[in-house]
Amino acid sequence: MPDVGSTSVVKPWTFVDFILVWLGGFVGTGVFFAIGYFIDSDDVSFVLALAGQYVGNLGVLWLLRRSKDNAGLGFSIEPRDVFYIGAGLGLQFILALAFLPISQWLFPDGVPPQQVAEMLGDGDATMLVRLSLIVAAVVLAPVTEELVFRGVLLRSFENHSRRLAMVVTAAIFSAVHILGLDPDRLLASAVVVLPPIFVLGLVLAWLTLRTKRLGPAIFLHSGWNLLAAVVLLLPPELLEQVG
């Protein structure tokens, strides 16, 4: 006979959960980099450290999810979600054009303000490094970051207004990208990179709240990163002709 006095309480996602998942990425990066260090290969160490970030994020997320009962994150993908890749490409293109004058003014030498972008565009980078960065940018980052930001973080603001949830999560989403900026030109890099990412965060949050799924946001995020990766992989001579 069931206990009438017992109730099933669903534990909600909180901002603390977001912090724990984010810290898991740093721990995973450190552990995997240490493993690669003993292999004595810079490329392997880099690839392992890159993979460790996502393993750490998803590992902590999985552990926390086990204690959340039925508090899912809306990780649902449908075939039609693929079309959102085009939306991501378009949004990236429009915002890149809007900020192009500022970017050219602050970076007349053409050096990308983000370290990942600089590595992708580096002709001396090995195929292993470049391929790993592309896979991370187009597949791993969209899936993981949407689970973390539009999954855990956005759901931690469920008891607040949608407008506040969108603005705060977008602000945090853009702020964490400071870690990937050129430290020698941090302020200039932030002026160029962070505002478009904030707009992206707003769109992704709105889309997730509207559809109540992460699938559309994942593919839009993937399209956004895909355009940047393709442009950086093009030969410099071709870019000069286009410009």
Describe the structure.
With 243 residues, the chain is an all-alpha fold. It has two domains: 1-72, no CATH class; 76-242, no CATH class. The protein is built from ten helices and no strands. It has helices at 15-39, 42-65, 84-98, 100-106, 115-121, 127-155, 162-175, 186-211, 215-233, 236-242. Helix 1 (15-39) packs antiparallel against helix 2 (42-65). The longest helix has 29 residues, at 127-155. The chain is globular, with a radius of gyration of 19 Å. Mean pLDDT is 85; it is low at 1-6 and 236-243.
Arithmetic mean of pLDDT: 85
Characterize the biggest β-sheet. none
Through-space gap between termini: 75 Å
Class inferred from helices and paired strands: mainly alpha
Q: If helices are DSSP runs of H or I spanning 4 or more residues, what is the number of helices?
A: 10
The Cα radius of gyration reads 19 Å
Helix-residue proportion? over 70%
Number of strands: 0
Low-confidence spans: 1-6, 236-243
Strand content: under 5%
Shape: globular
Number of domains: 2
Topology order in helix (H) and strand (E) letters: HHHHHHHHHH
Give a short synopsis of this structure.
Helix content is about 70%, strand content about 0%. By secondary structure, the protein is an all-alpha fold.
Set out the fold topology.
Layout: H1 15-39, H2 42-65, H3 84-98, H4 100-106, H5 115-121, H6 127-155, H7 162-175, H8 186-211, H9 215-233, H10 236-242
Helix pairs in contact: 1-2, 1-6, 2-6, 3-9, 5-9, 6-7, 6-9, 7-8, 8-9
